[in-house]
UniProtKB/TrEMBL annotation:
Gene3D superfamilies found in the cross-reference section: 23S rRNA-intervening sequence (1.20.1440.60)
SUPFAM superfamilies in UniProt: IVS-encoded protein-like
GO cellular component term of the entry, any: ribosome
InterPro entries cross-referenced by the UniProt entry: 23S_rRNA-intervening_sequence, 23S_rRNA_IVS_sf
Protein name: S23 ribosomal protein
Keyword annotations: Ribonucleoprotein, Ribosomal protein
Length: 136
């Protein structure tokens, strides 16, 4: 029996085609750029590691969730990505308060975090079982 789904049949069904994943990747790149500009101190190294970890976790969990076969596993990874988005936003606020990030840059990145979080919420609600092509 051949089971098909419009989602599974899309050519190039990969997380790399997701607007959400690409926006998360750009946010991570922006965070890496900010971390590289910070003075090299022990406390800054700790903060840089944390914010890079949280920012890169967003896209990683979107990708991993996209590759899962069950809606529950997919939703779980999207929820983790949303938590990492909130954590990244928290670190951005701390960097602004510490003087390492301008108010304008923090506002722009905060807005991006909010938009990514909203997209994750929407995508989580839209998770349906993914049916893969089976040539049995």
């Amino acid at each position: 029996m051949r089971v098909e789904s419009s989602v599974a049949m899309v050519k190039g069904y990969t997380h790399r085609n997701l607007i959400l994943w690409n926006r998360a990747q750009q946010l991570a790149l922006d965070v890496i750029t900010i971390a590289r500009r910070m003075p090299n101190t022990w406390s800054n190294a700790v903060i840089a590691r944390q914010i890079i970890a949280s920012a890169t976790s967003i896209g990683a969990n979107i990708a991993e969730g996209h590759g899962r076969y069950t809606p529950g596993a997919h939703r779980n990874h999207l929820a983790i990505a949303k938590g990492s988005t909130a954590e990244t936003d928290r670190w951005l606020d701390l960097l602004r308060r510490s003087g390492y990030l301008s108010e304008e840059d923090e506002a722009r990145l905060h807005s991006e975090c909010q938009e990514i979080a909203a997209m994750l919420t929407s995508k989580t609600g839209a998770c349906h079982p993914i049916t893969h092509v089976n040539d049995s």
